[in-house]
Each structure stands twice: as structure tokens, then as C-alpha cells.
Amino acid sequence: MSDQQEQPIFSIEKLFVKDLSLEVPHAPQIYLEAQQPEVEMQLHTQSQQLDEGFYENVLTVTVTAKIGEKTVFLAEAAQGGIFQIRNVPADDLEPILGMACPNILFPYVREVISDLVTRAGFPPVILSPINFEQLFMQRQAQGASQDAPATVQ
């Protein structure tokens, strides 16, 4: 019995959209623009312990499309997850929260953003895969918090 209690546990308890917003400040005139907008994406991860062995991880993606200085749309989705993480060495907890959890949440937030932008009347934005391990390592090297936003072009 004691051997089983010592086994590391990692499970998804709940996935949910925590926050969702869309702005199309220049509608309806913006739909007449023929020019392709420049699209920029920002990522932000945040984690907190909810209870013994339970953690919330939130991956927020902000997509901004602009033509020159004019914002075409701004879409933001915060995809949350509650994860059970137990019997893991303390040194491994931060990498799990900074890499494994965002990797699980990203496909969900990517779908939410694509759907949101499509519902606004624009072609879907398909976000490229993100290497959360590389972002985690960069933040570690810079001494930055996992809560710091990262801009991806």
C-alpha cells in the first residue's frame, strides 16, 4: 500500500474557459479593408495551489491584429485547468506547472481563439504550436517569473 501512495500522480481534474473577450473597435468599416493585418500573439501562464495536491493553471492567449496603427481585432482567452499533482519532488513542480500544464491547455485555447475570431467575421486564426519547454527555459535563464507574458510573432 505504501508503495502505491509514493507513486507520482498527475491528472486533469477540470478544464474550463476562465475569461473570454473580443474587441473589434473599428467595425463595421474595418471589414472593408483589403489589406492583410499583422497578427501578434502574447502568452501568459499563471499557477496557484488550490488545495493540498491541487493546482490551477491558466494559459492566457492574446491575439492582436492590426493594419498599421489601427486595431482590426483583439481576442483574448484564458483557458484554465485544475490539475492534481502529488508525490512529485518540489524541484519538479515548477517545470510541471510551467511546461506540462500549458501544453495540455494550449490546444483548447487555440480552438477558442479560432472560433472567437471566426464569429467576429474574420478568417480563423490558427495559432502555431508553442514550445513551452523552450519558453520555460528562457524564463529560467532570465530569472523571470512564470507569470511574465511572452510575445510570439
**How many DSSP-defined strands?**
5
CATH topology: the name is: Bacterial Protein-export protein SecB
Instruction: Give the low-pLDDT segments.
Output: none
Radius of gyration: 18 Å
Largest sheet entry:
5 strands, antiparallel
Write the topology of this structure.
Elements: H1 2-6, E1 9-23, E2 38-51, E3 54-67, E4 70-86, H2 90-119, H3 132-142, E5 150-152
Summarize the structure.
The chain has 153 residues and is α+β, with helices and mostly antiparallel strands. It is 30% helix and 41% strand. Helix 2 (90-119) crosses helix 3 (132-142).
Account of the protein in words:
With 153 residues, the protein is α+β, with helices and mostly antiparallel strands. It has a single domain, classed as Bacterial Protein-export protein SecB. It is 30% helix and 41% strand. The protein contains 3 helices and 5 strands; from the N terminus they run αββββααβ. The chain has helices at 2-6, 90-119, 132-142, and strands at 9-23, 38-51, 54-67, 70-86, 150-152. It has a 5-stranded antiparallel sheet. α2 crosses α3. The chain is elongated. The termini are far apart. The model has no long low-confidence stretch (mean pLDDT 91).
